[in-house]
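Researcher: Sequence recovery benchmark, item below. Answer with residues only.
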């Protein structure tokens, strides 16, 4: 099994994730997004508001469980365990367009294969009620290009 490669992580994570620029272990992983992990435009990724440590907020996308890898030196998993699955809260449509991709990933990963088409139609309809069409199309393209490999 093993840990995901740097290229796989870049493809699987959102543009606000420190995994776009840093290696596993050089950032912390939090359970979910929140005000305690804002986007730092000067650095180009989310950070801990308390410590300034780069922080990923989607463990199921980066492929490792939540832990203080960078700030406290928590060891990376060996890669023998399956990556974290989306949680129930990850399946709630966000208000923030920067979290749209992560929501779509969670929805796709939790959908039974036989229902994927219907799930995508429902997700697209729900997203279009809240976000601009170009935001939805961009997010769908990015997510599906990675999730349907």
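Model:
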């Amino acid at each position: 099994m093993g840990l995901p490669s740097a290229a796989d992580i870049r493809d699987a994570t959102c543009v606000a994730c420190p995994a776009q620029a840093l290696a596993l272990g050089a950032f912390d992983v939090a359970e979910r997004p929140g005000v305690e992990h804002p986007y730092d435009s000067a650095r180009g990724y989310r950070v801990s508001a308390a410590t300034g440590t780069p922080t990923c907020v989607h463990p199921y996308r980066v492929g490792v469980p939540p832990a203080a890898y960078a700030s406290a030196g928590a060891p990376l998993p060996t890669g023998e365990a399956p990556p974290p699955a989306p949680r129930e809260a990850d399946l709630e449509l966000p208000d923030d367009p920067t979290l749209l991709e992560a929501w779509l990933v969670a929805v796709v990963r939790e959908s039974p294969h036989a229902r994927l088409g219907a799930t995508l139609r429902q997700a697209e309809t729900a997203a279009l009620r809240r976000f601009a069409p170009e935001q939805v199309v961009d997010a769908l393209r990015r997510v599906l290009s990675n999730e349907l490999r």
